[in-house]
Specification:
Largest sheet: 7 strands, mixed
Strand content: 15-25%
Catalytic activity: (E)-caffeoyl-CoA + S-adenosyl-L-methionine = (E)-feruloyl-CoA + S-adenosyl-L-homocysteine + H(+)
Protein name: Caffeoyl-CoA O-methyltransferase
Number of strands: 7
Organism: Centaurea solstitialis
Radius of gyration: 18 Å
Keywords: Lignin biosynthesis, Metal-binding, Methyltransferase, S-adenosyl-L-methionine, Transferase
Bound molecules: S-adenosylmethionine, calcium ion
Order of helices and strands: HHHHEHEHEHEHEHEE
InterPro entries: Cation-dep_OMT, SAM-dependent_MTases_sf, SAM_O-MeTrfase
Length: 252
């Protein structure tokens, strides 16, 4: 699905009659003022300088909607510290905003295997990551993530070795990532799947207006959410920060 489809909203009388808000807002909170309050009183005053710099660089990118919101980045950073994450993975890097939030949270000898099919966007953020003094924690691999996961599973050395994995790439593959990541993450470790509320569209009535991009991936996200709740190997918690992140804790 082409990213410029993102801007085209399909109109539907049915959706308007149902009163459902058009599904394309970045924040899931009901009031913009409430969201501004969170940012202005809790996030921006404590935002590390490199996070601010990279957020501002990313905001100028035509696909800026890809990046985590600043409040979710703050949440991710805190979460990584709470679980004492050291060996981590990120699928879907873009300009490296969530990657920097991760790298800043890890100890000096922490590691992030970071994968993205696009190196150019990563390189936009890389100078900021280097200046922040955390680039040594990152092993960036350009290319699709799935073959890398398959290789790690095949060589047997990586089973149960990851403390934390953040998945924020092709939503139609989340279920396939999960099949592999459940082996690679430690028992007691966490996988965070981003955008599991998918612009609020997961709860939109049939026929609600939404962009073609949102509509295209919606069924994949709905199926994925169902699969997680039925998976006895994990405990889950869906957190309505950003576009929704589902945390999965491996229990066996
Ligand atoms: N996590 C980033 C952040 O918050 O700043 C945003 C990631 S963006 C939503 C999704 C990224 O996934 C894009 O940069 C895209 O190139 C990448 N991607 C798409 N398909 C992929 C694949 N099969 N393997 C690895 N990366 C992929
Ligand atoms: Ca995301």
């Amino acid at each position: 699905m082409a990213i410029n489809d993102e801007t085209k909203t399909e109109s539907s009388n049915e959706g308007q009659e149902s009163g459902h808000q058009e599904v394309r807002y970045k924040s899931l909170l009901q009031s913009d003022a409430l969201y501004e309050y969170i940012l202005e009183t809790s996030v921006y005053p404590r935002e590390p300088e490199p996070m601010k710099e990279l957020r501002e660089i990313t905001a100028k990118h035509p696909w800026n909607i890809f990046a985590l919101t600043a409040d979710e980045a703050q949440f991710l950073n805190m979460l990584l510290k709470l679980v004492n994450a050291k060996n981590t993975m990120e699928i879907g890097v873009f300009t490296g905003y969530s990657l920097l939030a991760t790298a800043l949270a890890l100890p000096e000898d922490g590691k992030i295997l970071a994968m993205d099919i696009n190196r150019d966007n990563y390189e936009l953020g890389l100078p900021v990551i280097e200046k922040a003094g955390v680039a040594h924690k990152i092993d960036f691999k350009e290319g699709p993530a799935m073959p890398v996961l398959d290789e790690m599973i095949a060589d047997g050395k990586h089973h149960g070795t990851y403390d934390f994995v953040f998945v924020d790439a092709d939503k139609d593959n989340y279920i396939n990532y999960h099949k592999r990541l459940i082996d690679l993450v430690k028992v007691g470790g966490l996988i965070g799947y981003d955008n599991t509320l998918w612009n609020g569209s997961v709860a939109a009535p049939p026929g609600a207006p939404m962009t073609k991009y949102v509509r295209y991936y919606r069924d994949f996200v709905l199926e994925f959410n169902k699969a997680l709740v039925a998976d006895p190997r994990i405990e889950i918690c869906m957190i309505p920060v950003g576009d929704g992140i589902t945390l999965c804790r491996r229990i066996n």
